[in-house]
Design a protein that fits this description.
The chain is α/β, with parallel strands linked by helices. Helix content is about 30%, strand content about 20%.
């Protein structure tokens, strides 16, 4: 029998890859025991769980199953259900989250491992497409980041770009550490109409055009942003409805995972085979904080892992629907 509380304590204490791999095997065995959908998937693949001894042996559940099944490793009712943005008339993924506290723990650890204490930043959230629907995990995260900030200037902006420009001007004068967290089409609309030389501003993309604008090459889009804001690089957040943790990029589309998260690349012709570093393929994600759902997800994104463990997003499978975060044409 596996105890989730003890495993979570181990997840909180991960310090290196050796710790990660050891805990990942425990999480795999826990979810095989308590997640009926995952168990069926592992059994369908005819995998002997006793032979799963390292993370390359772990089977990954297709992310599409979140559209059709309740992926849960617990029997109680979910504390909250997150849903993906989806496409018009399409099915949406649903993430049945057992504990909001666990989600908060995951994104706080993800953010602070990369950027430091949340309270030191002013957060300006430009997320109109997410604010206009229910069930967005990103909105919950943004709301909490704003609350945890030490500054009352933090807040949401819908299409009130004039107010956003005035606030950015004030924060620049105050030399405040500021993050503009926005969906691509909204940042682009702002950048096409306003110019502010705020080189210390962190412009962080989280999501693509959401069908509002034509997709644009990342280099072209980031050049427009940098010219408008006076910045040298554009940050990005990589996450999705089916996860609790996020990876972050400080520029050039190179992402880094927090200690509880890891990216592996599967062979597009042999989905059970893991590619070596430097080879492109389908992105598999391990998110250990997702212990109450499924921590091992085969996404519809394409990418590659670099030698230092960072990764790039190269696009999406042709037959996948357009949704989720960072769906820019790269």
């Amino acid at each position: 029998m596996y105890n989730s509380h003890k495993i979570i304590e181990k997840i909180n204490s991960i310090e290196n890859n050796k710790d990660f791999e050891k805990v990942a095997i425990e999480v795999f065995n826990y979810q095989y025991q308590y997640n009926s959908i995952y168990k069926k998937w592992v059994d369908y693949l005819n995998i002997n769980t006793k032979e799963v001894n390292n993370i390359n042996d772990i089977p990954y559940i297709p992310v599409s199953l979140f559209k059709t099944h309740k992926i849960k490793s617990y029997s109680q009712e979910a504390e909250i259900i997150f849903s993906s943005s989806g496409t018009t008339g399409g099915n949406t993924s649903k993430h049945y989250v057992k504990s909001i506290d666990m989600y908060q723990r995951a994104y706080i650890k993800s953010f602070e491992e990369y950027y430091g204490p949340i309270e030191e930043y002013t957060f300006l959230a430009l997320l109109p497409s997410y604010m206009e629907r229910e069930g967005s995990s990103l909105i919950m995260m943004a709301e909490d980041l704003i609350k945890r900030s030490n500054y009352a200037d933090s807040g949401f902006y819908l299409y009130n770009y004039d107010e956003l420009y005035k606030k950015l001007t004030e924060l620049k004068a105050k030399k405040r550490k500021t993050i503009l967290l926005g969906v691509s089409f909204a940042i682009l609309e702002f950048a096409e109409n306003y110019t502010i030389n705020f080189p210390d501003l962190i412009v962080m993309e989280t999501g693509g055009m959401k069908g509002r604008r034509k997709e644009v090459l990342r280099e072209e889009l980031h050049s427009i942003y940098n010219n408008a804001f006076g910045t040298k690089s554009i940050h990005s957040e990589y996450g999705m409805t089916e996860l609790l943790s996020q990876a972050y990029s400080k520029g050039n589309g190179i992402f880094y995972c927090p200690l509880q998260m890891k990216i592996l690349i599967r062979d597009t012709n042999d989905p059970l085979s893991i590619q070596p570093k430097g080879k492109s393929g389908g992105i598999n994600i391990i998110d250990l904080y997702n212990i109450h759902s499924c921590s091992f997800i085969a996404t519809q994104d394409l990418g590659k892992v670099l030698e230092d463990g960072s990764f790039e997003i190269l696009g999406r499978f042709d037959n996948s629907d357009i949704r989720g975060c960072n769906l820019l044409i790269l």
